[in-house]
Hints:
By secondary structure, the chain is mainly β. The protein has five domains: about 1-40 and about 675-875, no CATH class; about 45-135; about 150-395, no CATH class; about 430-540, no CATH class; about 555-670, no CATH class. A hairpin with a 4-residue loop joins β49 (about 725-730) and β50 (about 735-740).
Amino acid sequence: MIKDVRYNGVSFTPSDYECPDGDLVTAMGFIHEHDALRPILPPQTVQTLREGRTVICIHKIGTSVHYILEANYDEDGTPWHSLEYLCDGAYQEITELRDTVLRQVTVMGNTLIVLREDGMDYYLWSEEEGYIYLGSGLPECSLSFGLEGSIAMGEPFNLTFGSVYSDGGRFSDEDRSKVTSTVLAKVNSFIADRATNNGAFLFPFFVRYAYRLYDGSLSRHSAPVLMICSSGTSPQVASRIMRAENITSAQCAVYGMVCDLNYMVANASVLTTLKRWKDIIRSVDIFVSAPIYTYDQSGECESFGKTEPGYALCRTSTDTGYRKTNISEELSRLNNGFAADFAPVLPKKERDDIIDDIKGCNQFFLLKSIEIDNLCSERSRIEIPDEYLQSLMNREAMTDDYDSHDQLIPKYSYVYNSRLNIANLEKLLYEGYPSVAAFCCNDRPQNTAYFTTGPLSCYVYVKQDGRTIVVRNESAIFATDPWLVYFYYPNTNAFKAVICQSGYQDDMGSTYSKYAEIELKPHEYLNGAVYFGGWDGIILKEGDVSVAVSSDEERLISLPNKIYTSETNNPFYFPLLGINTVGFGEILGICSAVKAMSQGQFGQFPLYAFTSEGVWAMEVSASGSYSSVQPVTRDVCVNPESITQIDNAVLFATERGVMLVAGSESMCISDMLDNDETVSLATFTCGEELIEKAGFSADHFDFIPFKEFVVKCRIIYDYTNQRLIIYNTGTLYAYVYSLLSKKWGMMVSDISGHVQSYPQALAMTWDNALVDFSKLDDTAVPHGLIVTRPLKLDNADILKTVDTVIQRGVFRRGHVSTALFGSRDLFNWVLVFSSKDHYLRGFRGTPYKYFRIVMICSLDKGESIFGCGIQYTPRMLNQPR
Length: 881
């Protein structure tokens, strides 16, 4: 009888008894494509590297290609862990890694994002300087704001009224309306002329600053700093009248402490660091709030009396420093005859209303943009154009900040839609704002008998993740008592702060410390906690206090199920809208399922998050943020390194095998390789001899169960040839899957790792070569070995004698050698006959139930094997012989 057998791909299921004739158990060096077995040609070598170097990333900048390398030792064999890059044959060091575990390097534009075990670093490419180390995040720049004040007087005006002294200074109903109309008109004119239209400040206000990045976004917001131009009702009215009976007129004038705003960079050393960030940080932008009015604009003047202008925290022309300045005393120094002790009293806002205005202040408007090169480490007045403040409310409003000062330590990063996604991260809680940048400048003692020499420490208690974390910031000297009026920490979970300052000295030369404890409440509108206790502030009390500060490890907050997404083309800023929670487990990896048009450009398609609970899909909205998160499959990825993007799907390894997820569907593409028992040609009679003749070693056929193989596998996507290479660095073989035929083959593997570089399929070999599987070596003549699964020849239970086997295909004579093995129990295999070419004929022997064909091949490009023709004689048991 004659039977034609067509060869298929590699499969291990169903069982040997049930499998169709033509399935293969081994196809080393072959893949089934276009209805035939075709040789897997070796890849072209792109670059041979120095010893100890591994390519981990490709950075394409214009026409240049930088191979980012991890170096494990130097050329002379000295242990050396560093990050390098190779370009045009030249090796350059990027940074020394020392004992740091390198997790991942991601490319976005001209920036490298390096994930280490203990943090995340940025390196910016410069044509002049190479890769410039920027740091683990935007640098902290501390601006100290101060007020320079002076008493301003409006034009005198005459005020007439009925007799008031005899009535305790109170106005009659008729006079109240007339006086209020006259005085408030002068007050409003004074505010406009001397302050608002003149770029100066009269009322308390907040100032805040942030970095303006190259894409226009704001980051690293400072604390709102309360600037105290006046703690009392402002402005005020002074008069030249004397107390006497039946006073009916007075000469009056409006006055107030008018202040200019200045700043300085308190940590001058940061200016050098900022110059490295000039391409990222465009400017430092200063924002101010609308004035916090302390007089009631809709109220009335009720009487003459002693005014309460309060104090200003400023420097005047007669001061050498910034201190609490009594505004009434400053008025008396003018010696112009006007006094504040008996004048029309302006209607003032209720104390609780002012406290609510200050605690709830949340809108800040652009005042000034200062470029990096123009920042000053000496006090500089902020020039404000005339009438700028008049239209302040129409200026750009400051966005709110969300934990931008916390240090992020991600375990995984992925670029999608020109945005950097980081996942499974920890964040190190911010230490807090330095006091020099958190409070209005206040550096001159109120009483010269007291001065400070020690640093001021701010301890903040934060309740997060079910535990209390204490952070500390220590910085500049503050000398004036009372000084602590307003305090802010950028975390709504903060509930208490302890302020300590040492170095106080009395007249006897004794030194001691002072401290205060304040309660923090979540800000109603900002992402932070705030304290404001009124204008009297907190008086530090004498004594020492011991506070146990949390270690860096204790300050870490675990966010295993969070994905932070940056702004478009800006890997340095992660807005609040870009933070998503995926399930309740740990995020193992993220990947998109789209056709990439270029590096980092994908379009509006789903992003998959692989977690310890399964796979979740994230839909992208028109704004670029994620609009929804929904589960797709319960399959759990057992090896994050196996996650691989193909054109419109994602592959990943599970305990079940290699899964393919596309849309909301998930399927296993490796079911036919699911085997618990492996078959080794080395156990066949003469099997080791055949392996040796084929140019292999027995180690190449030391197969392990596929479920064990897949646990530590990685996948290379060969876009050009539409193949998947599934390799395991612990084996000398790899599986190859054809996306065209949906069938499996095998190849010898010396792959030590691979690099994502679409559309190339780059991999590292154990001999330090970088190869490209998308470009095959056409000149090579690879060796191959094919072993079929048991051939039953239409009847598995009948003994058969084979006398002829002819291989069919397109190949030259002598390129295929053939051997035939037989078995009666599917376990023990005996060599029946062999030939140096593709013919087996002219033989007869012992009958067997099952047969395997082994082929040793050396096929050129374009050659293929289709199948074979078998002539056999069945040994019928139910017929006479």
